[in-house]
Amino acid sequence: MSNRRVAVVTGANKGIGLEIARQLAQEGLSVYIGARDEARGRDAAEKLRAEGLDARPLRLDVTDDASVASAAASLEREAGRLDVLVNNAGIAIDDGPPSRVSLDVVRRTYETNVFGVIRATQAFLPLLRRSDAGRIVNLSSGLGSLTQNSDPGWAFAAVKYLAYNTSKSAVNAITVQFAWELRDTPIKVNAADPGYVATDMNRHQGERSVAQGAATPVRLATLPADGPSGGYFNDEGPIPW
To answer: Of 50, 64, 86, 161, which has the fewest Cβ atoms less than 10 A away?
Structure first.
């Protein structure tokens, strides 16, 4: 491993995650493509390498303790440290309005979107502590903002997905907790709202490109030493929890 900064992006074999990996690699980082499916992760890394970028596959299922522990151990052997962790992996599988969504859907959503963020952060934190400028970026959503969800005039006020929205509210709270614990370290922890991006998750109905959606997470992943920590941001800057 060279002296390049090292990043791990979870759920990075497609969509926003792949574009975040691409943009971080374009910034000169060595990027590990975290993916549940080993073949898809390898294909994604090869795609970026074909563009002249430093990308490597990393088998990583954020819902599985053993998989996450194995990924952290593999990274320690190969790189010895971690500078950037982007918790991007997420699912949106709500099957009805809040009164009818199944508890199984809520559990499955939280396993990836909430427990997966905690699991990955805890596993990779020892390696992030070895960095002189560690960065953790948690992918959230405007749908997780309590302020925006409570505003009847908000453009997405009618979008009330019990499992997905509340999972992203939890991600915002998780961000605050880790940022507080790490406030006296070089590690900065922030949440990013990529906006309504056209991806498989919404059957490509989003109005933004993956390049636009990746911009804020990449900016937070490359913050200078005097940058913020414990905040929630989109392209325009801080947004309300």
So the answer is: 50
Selected catalytic residue, list 161, 164, 196, 232: 164
State which amino acid sits at residue 8. V
| Residues 129-184: tens digit of each pLDDT | 999 999 999 999 999 999 999 999 999 999 999 999 999 999 999 999 999 999 99
- The DSSP-derived string for the chain is --SS-EEEETT-SSHHHHHHHHHHHHTT-EEEEEESSHHHHHHHHHHHHHTT--EEEEE--TT-HHHHHHHHHHHHHHTS--SEEEE--------S-TTT--HHHHHHHHHHHTHHHHHHHHHHHHHHTTSSS-EEEEE--GGG-HHHHT-TTSTTTT---HHHHHHHHHHHHHHHHHHHHTTTSS-EEEEE---SB-SGGGTT--SB-HHHHHHHHHHHHT--TTS--S-EEETTEE---
Distance CA 62, CA 80 (A): 21
Q: Where on the phi/psi map is residue 58: left (φ > 0), alpha (ψ -120 to 50), or beta?
A: beta
Is the Cβ–Cβ distance between 143 and 156 less than 8 Å? yes
